Amino acid sequence: MNPYEDPDQPPPESGPGVGLGPSGFRTAEELDAAGLTRDMDMTGIVVTLQRREDMLLLEFRFQGLQRTGLGAQQRLVTKAADQPGFLLVRMPPQATLEEATPLTSPSTAVKQAWFADLSSLSLRVPPGASIPLTAAGLLNWAELATDSARLECVWGLGLTPQTPEQVVWLHAAEPVTGPTGAVGIWHTRLALPPAASGPPGTPSRLPVPVKPAEVVNDTEGFMSSLSAGDRRAIGASMARRPALAQDLTFSPLGANVDLTGNWLGLANTTVIMYRHESVGGRDSTVDVLKRGYLLPFGFPALITTQTERRLDHGLVRTSVLTVLQPDVTYQDVAALPNAGRGFPFTRVRLNGPLSADVIDATDPLTDVGFWVRGPGMPDGRLRFSLTAEDRRGHPVAFTAPLVFVNGDRAHGDLSAALAAFNTQAEKTDLPASGRLELAPATGADPESTTVDVAVLRIGAVRSSASQTDLEKAGRLAALPELLSVDARIPALDAVAERGATRDDGAARKDDAGQEDDAARAAVHTLLLDKTYVKDGLAASRQVYAQLKTRVPVAPPVTASGGIAKLDLPVTGLSSATGLIGGDLAKLKSGTFDPVSFFTPSPDPPASGPPPPFPTRLLGFVDLTKLVPPVSVPPAGAGDGTDVPRMATKVLRRQDKPPHAVETTLTWHPKLTPTRAGPLKTTADTALDLRCVTLMNLDGSGPPVTEVRGELSRFTLSFAGVLDVDFQRIAFTSKSGTTTSLDVKVGKVGFSGQLKFLDELRQYLPSIANGPRINVDTDGIDVGYTLAVPSVGMGVLLLQNLALSASVRLPFNGDPVEATFAVSSREHPFLATVSLFGGGGFLALTVNTGEVVRLEGQVEFGAAVALNLGVASGSVSVTAGVYVRLDKKASSIKGFLRAYGELDVLGIVNISVEFYLGLEFQPPKTLYGYAFVTVRVRVAFFSESVTMKLERSFSGGNDPSFALAFPSAQPWRDRCAAFAPME
Questions:
Q1: How far apart are CA 873 and CA 287, in angstroms?
Q2: In the structure, what pLDDT confidence band is assigned to residue 740 with cuts at 50, 70 and 90?
Q3: pTM for this one?
């Protein structure tokens, strides 16, 4: 005997023959001595049986048994006459987990391997029975009934017979020698007892039903015949229907296994077929057929995994995915939630691959499945080609990675898995192409809610059907959901502000780095509106989608007739009005408020002029303050009366694809009667805007725009000095043609400091009766000039008098300017009375409540002449003032000119000219210059002399105290100069 103390350590090598090694005793004699006086309780005693000839190695433990007798008479008997005992047998590891390599890249490198745990079985010793405590007696357990077993002949999968008490163990008690003298390795085989109809004493050849005793959840970290998920799924299937073991033979070198599992027809399982063959504890062939579904669309699929041993590469593994049903619809049990509003497709078809080599279980999604991986993919995930159809039959083609959900988890609670899936799906762009109807169209155009898709992001939601119904229908307990879509919106591209950016913040540029009309066809990220998805279009006031990043839509003033500038941050899409902006929550609550719909006005700066209003009328009036809030019905305000309508119409020729998109912007709101700065509106004031943009879908040219804008029945007060009643300002513009303007003015009246000119209003003609109209790229000038004929009455003469008025309507959004003038610099008026005379001009330009520019000049003087025949002479004195005031620079000039001339018989001529000029130069400089010129002409000879003088007088700044009093003494002297205070 060869005793050892530690039951968890293998015994040391023994001498020849068979040995029994009891634990807790150093020698067999100590064991015999312990049993001389009493029967020995064998609980806790471990006996190791090893035999060199046939490599036998077993470990025995005892429960409810005691040892009696000495020497060869030693026996094991039950401790209680009425209670059974148990003989526990432990065998060395029977399986090896070896690293496998994919078939596409087999490797001859050294592979990793793990040994299985010990296999054990418990044999029931009937009450009163005894067993010889010898090698032969312990090996003769075939006569004992099996109570339980944990047989890890497959790594990580402990098996036990379905009915342990009905199986037998077949093995030899003594070494078996062959004809050649070779000794066979000891082994024992699990079998069924002899059939009643079979030969007596012959065990049955029927397979032994086995079920799982334990499933090891360890993750090996390398590819093997069975993954941890496979073992769990096989164990779950075995628990419901036993596998059949055609061969389970255990030996010191490992087990021979021939195991088959058939779970076809068994609902709610992952593995439906399983075949495992191994020799000497090493796998030779392992086949696994798994059933599941492809998330998020729910395609039923199978994964066939085959592992086989090759002499040159060891274990080589292949996994083939086969899609059973590549076309799914969503109805009945699989009906989409919220009537399908969250996923606007009715059918999804998987084009391919329908069968592909995949790598499974290496990219798990929680514990329900894994991302299907395939060789050659950038991120390792296999991309499937799919086509989805919307309600109108539009096909959308896209590619997507899919998740294989195990069949046993496919119909239960997938909440945690769906949350993990959606987290990744939000960041996974699925390249797509086609047109998609996001919501039912409610207008006349059936394509008004259809967009050109570039990218899809698809998540999943839980199915509301019961698990039983899902199992019967064979459907996944999850349904697809559209998280977001990147789409091209021609209506938005046609009216988007130039210089706008994409959703990623980058400016759209052409190849030369410049913004280009073709490049403006950007991709915008859309999210289905939650209110629409949950309750429908009526609850959301026809709003069905939101833009992830608002897009500024600020057409140039020429695109709104030069009358109004609409600055609209587009934030969503409406089936009734097309593009919508501002606060969608307020609009969906049933209120259209221009203040929240359009871009809000910025806060005025601490200093300097206030910035222009983003949305303005005539360049200077905040349009959002003139349009009152209105209620929006559930059907939406789709006629463009209260809410701006930007509708899209797809143009197509008969039986041909769409070739262009027509976007129409219409708005004719009711304006509030009010006084906003210089603008006065009444109940009859009306605004009408219409802009039609045609964009070719092939990008053959820039959008073609035709615009009409009209503002009627309003009054403008220019700087408080002139009131003009406008009957209409109408503007029509079309790409490639000349802009046309129709302006009709009613009553014109002066006010304020120019009220005295109101008597002359009959001389100011109606602009509609022949005004001058000048159109350029910056704006339109409309004006009229009335020239007064020369008037002579006695000594009074009035010449070159002209009265003019003009209005400028800029296209860049600047305020409207009005200019009033008396004569002009080029043609000043002249007035003389006897020997006194003068002249000048005056021009005043005003806009919204302020003087923009004032320019004028006045000259006055006297002249006298005397002719005596022999000699003649003349003297004149002239003085004048020129004033120019504007925002950029101001100038004030004054001059005095005196001239005298004497002529004698035309032979001698003497003249003297004196000129004095003064000019104020900002900030504190007065510049003066003067000259005297004397000219003398005698017959044919003449000479002149000029003397000049220039002076500048600068006011400067007052000196600081430090400069005036650099030390204390000057300050004391100054104080001493004043009388003392009493």
A1: 133
A2: confident
A3: 0.70
